[in-house]
Amino acid sequence: MSAAEKAKAKTEQVVGKAVRKAAHALGNETTAAKGAALEARGKARDIKERSKHGLTG
C-alpha cells in the first residue's frame, strides 16, 4: 500500500467519522449517513489494499 493510498484511506475514515458525529449532534440524519458512508469507503479502501498486498491487521 503506497503512502498516498494509505493517507487517502485514513483521511476518508477520519473525515467521515467527524462528519457523522457532528451531524448526529445537530440532528441531521442525512448528512450523518453521508459521513458514515465516507467512513466505510475509507475502511473498505484500506481493506482492499491490505488484501491486495497480503497484509493483515
Question: Can you give a write-up of this model?
Answer:
- The protein is an all-alpha fold and 57 residues long.
- 84% of the residues lie in helices and 0% in strands.
- Helix 1 (3-26) runs antiparallel to helix 2.
- The longest helix is centred in the N-terminal third of the chain and has 24 residues, at 3-26.
- The model has no long low-confidence stretch (mean pLDDT 90).
What topology emerges from the helices and strands here?
Elements: H1 3-26, H2 29-52
Key attributes of the depicted protein:
single chain; 57 residues; 2 helices; elongated
Q: What count of helical segments does DSSP give?
A: 2
Strand content: under 5%
CA distance, first residue to last residue: 13 Å
- Shape by Cα distribution: elongated
Average pLDDT, rounded to a whole number, is 90
C-alpha Rg, in Å? Answer: 13 Å
Structural class: mainly alpha
Order of helices and strands: HH
Taking pLDDT < 50 over at least 5 consecutive residues as the criterion, the unreliable ranges are: none
Give a quick account of the main beta sheet: strands, pairing sense, barrel closure: none
Tally of strands = 0
Please bin the fraction of helical residues.
Answer: over 70%
Summarize the structure.
By secondary structure, this protein is mainly alpha-helical. The chain has two helices and no strands.
